[in-house]
Design a protein that fits this description.
Largest sheet: none
Oligomer: single chain
Distance between the termini: 33 Å
Shape: globular
Number of strands: 0
Order of helices and strands: HHHHHHHHHHH
Strand content: under 5%
Structural class: mainly alpha
Number of domains: 1
Protein backbone atom coordinates (compact mmCIF):
# COMPACT_ATOMS: atom_id res chain seq x y z
CA UNK A 1 0.00 0.00 0.00
CA UNK A 2 2.89 2.36 0.71
CA UNK A 3 4.09 1.86 -2.84
CA UNK A 4 0.71 2.97 -4.15
CA UNK A 5 0.71 6.22 -2.18
CA UNK A 6 2.26 8.18 -5.05
CA UNK A 7 0.49 6.39 -7.84
CA UNK A 8 -1.33 8.36 -10.53
CA UNK A 9 -5.12 8.65 -10.06
CA UNK A 10 -5.68 6.98 -13.45
CA UNK A 11 -3.68 3.96 -12.33
CA UNK A 12 -5.66 3.69 -9.12
CA UNK A 13 -8.93 3.87 -11.05
CA UNK A 14 -7.64 1.10 -13.30
CA UNK A 15 -6.77 -1.13 -10.35
CA UNK A 16 -9.98 -0.77 -8.36
CA UNK A 17 -13.30 -2.08 -9.67
CA UNK A 18 -15.41 0.34 -11.66
CA UNK A 19 -18.31 2.05 -9.97
CA UNK A 20 -21.47 3.17 -11.69
CA UNK A 21 -20.02 6.69 -11.83
CA UNK A 22 -16.84 5.39 -13.49
CA UNK A 23 -18.92 3.67 -16.17
CA UNK A 24 -20.98 6.81 -16.75
CA UNK A 25 -17.89 9.00 -17.07
CA UNK A 26 -16.25 6.57 -19.48
CA UNK A 27 -19.44 6.38 -21.53
CA UNK A 28 -19.57 10.17 -21.72
CA UNK A 29 -15.94 10.22 -22.81
CA UNK A 30 -16.66 7.75 -25.62
CA UNK A 31 -19.87 9.51 -26.65
CA UNK A 32 -18.20 12.92 -26.85
CA UNK A 33 -15.26 11.43 -28.73
CA UNK A 34 -17.54 9.67 -31.24
CA UNK A 35 -19.49 12.88 -31.83
CA UNK A 36 -16.25 14.78 -32.39
CA UNK A 37 -14.91 12.13 -34.76
CA UNK A 38 -17.97 11.00 -36.68
CA UNK A 39 -20.32 14.00 -37.03
CA UNK A 40 -17.79 15.83 -39.27
CA UNK A 41 -17.53 12.75 -41.51
CA UNK A 42 -21.29 12.99 -42.10
CA UNK A 43 -20.86 16.52 -43.49
CA UNK A 44 -21.81 15.62 -47.11
CA UNK A 45 -25.13 14.16 -46.00
CA UNK A 46 -25.76 16.94 -43.47
CA UNK A 47 -25.03 19.69 -46.01
CA UNK A 48 -27.44 18.23 -48.55
CA UNK A 49 -30.14 17.84 -45.93
CA UNK A 50 -29.52 21.42 -44.76
CA UNK A 51 -29.83 22.73 -48.32
CA UNK A 52 -33.14 20.91 -48.70
CA UNK A 53 -34.37 22.35 -45.38
CA UNK A 54 -33.48 25.89 -46.43
CA UNK A 55 -35.22 25.44 -49.78
CA UNK A 56 -38.32 24.08 -48.04
CA UNK A 57 -38.34 27.05 -45.66
CA UNK A 58 -38.11 29.43 -48.61
CA UNK A 59 -41.14 27.76 -50.15
CA UNK A 60 -43.02 27.86 -46.81
CA UNK A 61 -42.95 24.07 -46.67
CA UNK A 62 -42.43 22.34 -43.33
CA UNK A 63 -39.32 20.23 -43.02
CA UNK A 64 -37.64 19.05 -39.83
CA UNK A 65 -34.47 21.03 -39.00
CA UNK A 66 -30.98 19.63 -39.50
CA UNK A 67 -30.62 19.11 -35.75
CA UNK A 68 -33.27 16.39 -35.84
CA UNK A 69 -31.42 14.49 -38.56
CA UNK A 70 -28.08 14.88 -36.77
CA UNK A 71 -29.60 13.73 -33.46
CA UNK A 72 -30.59 10.44 -35.09
CA UNK A 73 -27.04 10.02 -36.36
CA UNK A 74 -25.63 10.78 -32.90
CA UNK A 75 -28.01 8.28 -31.30
CA UNK A 76 -26.39 5.45 -33.26
CA UNK A 77 -22.89 6.41 -32.19
CA UNK A 78 -24.06 6.87 -28.61
CA UNK A 79 -25.24 3.27 -28.69
CA UNK A 80 -21.83 2.26 -30.04
CA UNK A 81 -20.29 4.18 -27.14
CA UNK A 82 -22.12 1.90 -24.72
CA UNK A 83 -20.53 -1.12 -26.40
CA UNK A 84 -17.10 0.55 -26.44
CA UNK A 85 -17.39 1.32 -22.72
CA UNK A 86 -18.31 -2.29 -21.98
CA UNK A 87 -15.31 -3.44 -24.05
CA UNK A 88 -13.04 -1.09 -22.12
CA UNK A 89 -14.46 -2.35 -18.84
CA UNK A 90 -13.80 -5.96 -19.89
CA UNK A 91 -10.26 -5.22 -20.99
CA UNK A 92 -9.63 -3.32 -17.79
CA UNK A 93 -10.86 -6.23 -15.67
CA UNK A 94 -8.60 -8.57 -17.63
CA UNK A 95 -5.62 -6.22 -17.00
CA UNK A 96 -5.16 -5.73 -20.74
CA UNK A 97 -5.21 -1.92 -20.74
CA UNK A 98 -2.48 0.52 -19.76
CA UNK A 99 -3.25 3.74 -17.86
CA UNK A 100 -3.28 5.44 -21.28
CA UNK A 101 -6.03 3.04 -22.40
CA UNK A 102 -3.80 1.18 -24.84
CA UNK A 103 -3.84 -2.60 -24.96
CA UNK A 104 -0.87 -4.09 -23.16
CA UNK A 105 -1.11 -7.31 -25.18
CA UNK A 106 0.76 -7.28 -28.50
CA UNK A 107 -1.21 -10.35 -29.56
CA UNK A 108 -4.54 -8.60 -28.93
CA UNK A 109 -3.32 -5.51 -30.75
CA UNK A 110 -2.27 -7.67 -33.69
CA UNK A 111 -5.65 -9.43 -33.80
CA UNK A 112 -7.47 -6.09 -33.81
CA UNK A 113 -5.29 -4.80 -36.66
CA UNK A 114 -5.86 -7.97 -38.69
CA UNK A 115 -9.60 -7.88 -38.04
CA UNK A 116 -9.85 -4.23 -39.07
CA UNK A 117 -7.78 -4.87 -42.18
CA UNK A 118 -9.81 -7.87 -43.30
CA UNK A 119 -13.10 -6.10 -42.63
CA UNK A 120 -12.03 -3.35 -45.03
CA UNK A 121 -12.11 -5.99 -47.78
CA UNK A 122 -15.53 -7.49 -47.04
CA UNK A 123 -18.73 -6.99 -49.12
CA UNK A 124 -20.51 -5.65 -46.02
CA UNK A 125 -17.95 -2.87 -45.69
CA UNK A 126 -18.29 -2.07 -49.40
CA UNK A 127 -22.09 -1.96 -49.20
CA UNK A 128 -22.14 0.33 -46.16
CA UNK A 129 -19.50 2.60 -47.69
CA UNK A 130 -21.50 2.89 -50.91
CA UNK A 131 -24.47 4.26 -48.96
CA UNK A 132 -22.20 6.76 -47.19
CA UNK A 133 -20.62 7.88 -50.47
CA UNK A 134 -23.96 8.61 -52.19
CA UNK A 135 -25.78 11.09 -49.92
CA UNK A 136 -28.26 12.41 -52.50
CA UNK A 137 -29.32 8.92 -53.53
CA UNK A 138 -29.49 7.83 -49.90
CA UNK A 139 -31.87 10.67 -49.03
CA UNK A 140 -34.03 9.94 -52.08
CA UNK A 141 -34.30 6.25 -51.20
CA UNK A 142 -34.90 6.64 -47.46
CA UNK A 143 -36.81 9.91 -47.25
CA UNK A 144 -39.71 10.15 -44.80
CA UNK A 145 -41.54 13.38 -43.97
CA UNK A 146 -41.87 14.90 -40.53
CA UNK A 147 -39.59 15.02 -37.50
CA UNK A 148 -39.70 11.26 -37.00
CA UNK A 149 -38.79 10.81 -40.66
CA UNK A 150 -35.77 13.08 -40.26
CA UNK A 151 -34.69 11.33 -37.05
CA UNK A 152 -35.14 7.95 -38.73
CA UNK A 153 -33.08 9.16 -41.70
CA UNK A 154 -30.29 10.07 -39.29
CA UNK A 155 -30.57 6.67 -37.62
CA UNK A 156 -30.32 4.87 -40.94
CA UNK A 157 -27.37 6.91 -42.09
CA UNK A 158 -25.69 6.38 -38.73
CA UNK A 159 -26.28 2.62 -38.99
CA UNK A 160 -24.58 2.45 -42.38
CA UNK A 161 -21.75 4.64 -41.08
CA UNK A 162 -21.39 2.35 -38.07
CA UNK A 163 -21.30 -0.67 -40.37
CA UNK A 164 -18.58 1.05 -42.35
CA UNK A 165 -16.36 2.19 -39.49
CA UNK A 166 -16.95 0.29 -36.25
CA UNK A 167 -13.88 -1.91 -36.54
CA UNK A 168 -11.71 1.13 -37.24
CA UNK A 169 -12.99 2.70 -34.03
CA UNK A 170 -11.90 -0.41 -32.11
CA UNK A 171 -8.36 0.42 -33.21
CA UNK A 172 -8.44 3.18 -30.61
CA UNK A 173 -7.47 0.45 -28.16
CA UNK A 174 -4.36 -0.11 -30.28
CA UNK A 175 -3.24 3.47 -30.86
CA UNK A 176 -4.58 4.87 -27.60
CA UNK A 177 -8.06 6.00 -26.64
CA UNK A 178 -6.57 9.28 -25.41
CA UNK A 179 -4.10 9.70 -28.29
CA UNK A 180 -5.32 12.84 -30.08
CA UNK A 181 -3.18 12.24 -33.17
CA UNK A 182 -4.53 8.69 -33.51
CA UNK A 183 -8.09 9.94 -33.03
CA UNK A 184 -7.64 12.69 -35.62
CA UNK A 185 -5.97 10.27 -38.05
CA UNK A 186 -8.86 7.82 -37.89
CA UNK A 187 -11.43 10.60 -38.34
CA UNK A 188 -9.62 12.02 -41.37
CA UNK A 189 -9.26 8.55 -42.89
CA UNK A 190 -13.00 7.88 -42.51
CA UNK A 191 -13.86 11.23 -44.11
CA UNK A 192 -11.50 10.77 -47.04
CA UNK A 193 -12.78 7.25 -47.60
CA UNK A 194 -16.28 8.71 -47.97
CA UNK A 195 -15.56 11.68 -50.21
CA UNK A 196 -12.51 10.97 -52.38
CA UNK A 197 -13.03 9.44 -55.85
CA UNK A 198 -10.47 6.78 -54.99
CA UNK A 199 -11.80 6.34 -51.47
CA UNK A 200 -13.00 2.78 -52.04
CA UNK A 201 -9.69 1.62 -53.48
CA UNK A 202 -7.75 3.55 -50.85
CA UNK A 203 -9.78 1.87 -48.12
CA UNK A 204 -8.92 -1.56 -49.47
CA UNK A 205 -5.24 -0.68 -49.71
CA UNK A 206 -5.35 0.57 -46.12
CA UNK A 207 -7.05 -2.68 -45.13
CA UNK A 208 -4.27 -4.72 -46.65
CA UNK A 209 -1.67 -2.58 -44.87
CA UNK A 210 -3.46 -3.02 -41.53
CA UNK A 211 -3.68 -6.78 -41.98
CA UNK A 212 0.01 -7.06 -42.86
CA UNK A 213 0.97 -4.86 -39.90
CA UNK A 214 -1.11 -7.08 -37.64
CA UNK A 215 0.54 -10.22 -38.97
CA UNK A 216 3.98 -8.73 -38.44
CA UNK A 217 3.07 -7.71 -34.90
CA UNK A 218 1.59 -11.12 -34.19
CA UNK A 219 4.70 -12.82 -35.53
CA UNK A 220 6.85 -10.61 -33.33
CA UNK A 221 4.78 -11.39 -30.23
CA UNK A 222 5.08 -15.12 -30.87
CA UNK A 223 8.82 -14.85 -31.32
CA UNK A 224 9.11 -12.72 -28.20
CA UNK A 225 7.07 -15.22 -26.24
CA UNK A 226 9.27 -18.08 -27.37
CA UNK A 227 12.48 -16.56 -26.12
Amino acid sequence: MSGMAGAEPMVLMQIRPWTGLDFLLMFLMWAIMMVGMMVPTAAPMTLIYGAMARKAAGQSTHMAPVAVFVSGYIAVWSLFSVGATLAQWGLDRAALLSPGMVTTSPALGAVLLIAAGLYQLTPLKASCLEHCRSPARFIAEHWRSGSWGAFRLGLQHGAYCLGCCWVLMVLLFVGGVMNLLWIAGLAVFVLLEKILPLGVRGGKIAGAVLAVAGLLLLSGSWQGGGR
